[in-house]
Structure formats: C-alpha cells, structure tokens
Design goal:
It is found in: Cytoplasm. This protein is α+β, with helices and mostly antiparallel strands and about 600 residues long. It contains 11 helices and 18 strands. α7 runs antiparallel to α8.
Amino acid sequence: MASFSLPTINDNPDGGWGPSSSNLPPQFKFKDIPYAPYAKTDKLGRFADWNDISGDNRPQNAAQAPGSGATRGGAGGGRRGRDGQPAFGSGTASAFAYFHVEDESSFSLVDNKASTVRRGGGMSRGRGGGRGGASYANRGMGQRGRGGFNAGRGGAQRGARRGWRDWERSGRNREASVAISPEWSMLEEVEFHRLAKLRLDVDEPEELGSYGRVYAWEKSYDRITTKNEQPLHLVDRIKYNTTTSDDPVIQELASKETATVYTTDVILSVLMCAPRSVYPWDIVIVREGNKLFLDKRDGGPFDTVTVNENAADPPQDPTAANPNNPNEKIVVPDTPSINSATSLSLEATYINQNFGFQSVIETPPPAPVDFSKPNPFYGPDETEPLASCGYRYRLFDLGVTEDENIKICVRTEVDAFSAGQGINPRLGQGLVTIRALNEFDPRAQGAGGAPDWRTKLDAQRGAVVATEMKNNSCKLAKWTVQSVLAGADLMKIGYISRANPRDNTRHVILSTTSTRPTDFAAQLNVSLANGWGIVRTVTDLCMKQPEGKYVLVKDPNKPVIRLYSVPLTAFTAEEDEDDVPFDGEELESAA
C-alpha cells in the first residue's frame, strides 16, 4: 500500500502571511538575481510599455517605464532625466534584457506590414488620430490626416463598426426558391468556381421551325432623350411563357426523338449564366427514357425580372424580428415598401412587358412578318389580341466527338423586326429582342450607387451603362444569351424611370439604345463556350441517374448548385391548386 507523508510547512513566527525570511526554503531564495540601480528621483510608473517595441526603445527596467523621469534614449540606450542629466544607473548592463537562445532559423514572418507605433502623448479614440500620430483608425479602419478622412489600406471610411446589427444587413441569409423536403436526396454538389472553368464550343444551330408573328420596331423610340421623354402606357396583350413539358411543339419533336435535351431560352440562359447569379433559383428536370426536359415552376423565379441582383447592397425585403431577441415582435407593414426586392421585381416585370408591347408598330405600314406557322399557344377560342412574338425552335449539337449524339432543342423568342433591312425570319435577319432597364430611386437603399438618369443619361451614358453592367450583371448576361440563342440581329434596351420616385405606377421612357448581342456579350465578358460547358456538365450528371424527376437548386447564400432526386409527385399539388378556379366569394376576397 502506498505511503503518504505530509509536506514540510514553514510557519511564520512573526504571525505574518507566508514564510519568514529566516526560514525561507533554499529554492525560493533570490540567488544570482542582479540589482538594477535607480535614483530616488525616478518616478516608478508602469513596468513596461508594450505599445512601443521598436529598436532599442524597449524598457530595460522600471526606471525606463513610460511616465517616469527617465525618457527613451538614443542608440546607446542611455536614459536622461527631466533636467537633461543622465539617469542614475543608466550606464549599467541590461541585466533584465531577454535573449532568446533557441534556433530561429525555421521562423518565417507571415505578415510583413510595419507595426503601428503610437508616438502621440495620449490615446485617441473614435474617428482618427492627431496631426502626426496614429490611432485605432490607422489599424485598417481608415485614418484622419491633415486632408480629412481617408480610407486606409483595406480599411473602411470613418472606422466602420463591425458586428452591429449584422442580421439586418444585405449579408443576411436568404430563403431558398423552393422548400427542400426531407424526402429529397442530394446527388451532386458543384461549386461555381468549378463551373467557371468549363468550356465547350458549339457550332451553328439547325432551324427546326418558326411560329408566330412579329411587328416592326418603332424607330421613333431610338430618338427619345431625357428632354423629350415619353410616358410608358399599359398595353393589354397576351404573351405566353409556357414551360417546356407543356409546349405542344416540343412534345411533337420529342416523339420523333429529335434531341436529347429539351428546354426554353429563359431556362437555358439561367443555367448558362449560373456563376453570375446571386439570388436563388431552381430548375425541374424530368428524365424520360433517353430524354431530359428542363422545366420551370409556375410562379417561380423565371417569371419575374430581378433588380440590382449583383449590387454590393441589393434591395431587401422587409426584415423579420431580431433573432438575438426572441421577445421582439414581428411587425409586418400593411403596405410593403415600393423599393423592396419583391416590389421592384414585379415593377421591372411590368415595365419589360409593356415596353415591348408599346414599342412596336401594329398598324401597317410596315406590315407584320408571319413566320412559317401560327402561334402554337393561341387557341381558336381566344379573343384578346396577341403580342408581337416569334418562336424559333433551334437544335444545338453538344457532342464532343463525332460519335456522340447529344443534342439540345431550345425554344427561343424574338419580339420584333427592324424595318428597312432584309427580313428573313428563317435566317434571323432583321430580328430584334426588346428589353428594359428600370430606375426606381437613386437615393434609396439598394440603388447600387446608380447616377441620376435624367442628368447623366444624355451626357454621360457610359457611366450609366457601366453601373448597370455592375449592378445587373446576371440579368444583362441572361438577356444577351437569350438574344444570341434566338439568332437576333439587334437587342433594344430601354431606359425607363419612375415619373415620381415615390410612385411605382407611372413611368417614363428616357432613352433607348441598340446593340448587337455578340458585341454586348464581349462587353459583359460573357463566354458562350463556358455556358455550353455548364449545360453539357449538367446533362451528363442527369444522364447518369435513373429515370425520374430531379431538381437543380441554386443555394440561396452560397455559390453552389445542388442536384436533388425528388418524388414524381413533387410540385403537382401546387399546380393543381393553381388550376382550381375562383368562385365568387374567393374572387371578392382576393380583390
């Protein structure tokens, strides 16, 4: 059995705390400890000033501490008192200096920035330091010198406070475009940086058929300026945006085994420009035998137009309660803000549709151009007038080698034709796509630093275009890809603003620009080869899976897309509910 012995206890016969100096153990005696002399006039303050670690100015003992009569000396480490005479004991060796004796050859400095030395008399707080000094603001938060506030290297102006109500800022989490069910199983996950490295060159497509009727572009809209702005009218026309599986022409082509993949230009442009997207989206993929159908959901993100998606501080919807304060009540406004993300998206969709309807000539001359077949979605019972729209079904070859037979059938759209040019709808000569950019309020949150169009659009159009290319990079890239897929000669872009920044119901047309889609793609740095590489990669991922239904989802907060396997009954309940007609009471309550 192990023995236990009590340690030796040294009592203090004087009645004080701790051992007395007479019976102090040998191991606790201060042996070989040098004595640092100091004068009686030296004021003992802090023992060391760790803010100053430069050169020979490190304090050697208490007499050199800041606040004492001995101030920092020169190269010899000499200390002088307030009267200029050498301090007592300044000539002795630095007995308390620390010397590291271990090998430091393996040590490497990671941060090579010069350390901040505070030479001022006091520590300044808040926005900046003194005339010749540095403060907290110089440590990456911006500094205030003689010329005012200047942003430091990597710092924010005026010293931004980080962590304050971060849950309210644009970096907060977004909700997914579709609710991920626990029954779904994730099959693949691909990061955007991997998608950006893909590349596939595709030859000119084959024309499978053209449907619909297009009107001539009204050339007077090319001469609109901010001085003779034109109002935007509400035009009642029908334009169809049917998903892939419900397209009767695609169903007929699929029955003939025309292609491997079937989709529309709206869906395909989102996939080809996926690395630019910030907002969430989802594509429903159905594999039937050796065929893939890329569909959209009714009411999903493909039916609306985004606004300032790529801005540093994009528009936001009303926020919920602070998650850090569960007792805080959620206050939902009765009328949502007209500058919220949802309201701006609906406003932009309304503007795009009506600008396309208004800017064409429906009354001859010139006469409209009819494609080879009529509109496939306009039934004989329809009485409302059709919008100017032409559908071109085109076949692209995605095969890498001659032995591969992977083709994609795309339904593309054009909105008008340019009168006075040689018109050949089959070859796409003279065809035009019409789009519109909208300005809501340059001073509102989410404007992305856009200049005032009424003052800058005529004189400094380049600045306006550059800002829109930065704030709406994904939207402009999708429009350009759609125009290239449709084989359009020109793309007309209208600049439309609110008549009053506080009213989102009245708009005016300030200007219109015309550009070739291929040239605009080069300005936007849009690579069609990269887009086709993404499409081929997604096709290969889906063709490895068995027959069934899948969903390709863009993560709402990360640059990642994920492929999920979903039941065949997924999304059918939503469509059945949408197809149920309103009765009288429901219609009245909805109104």
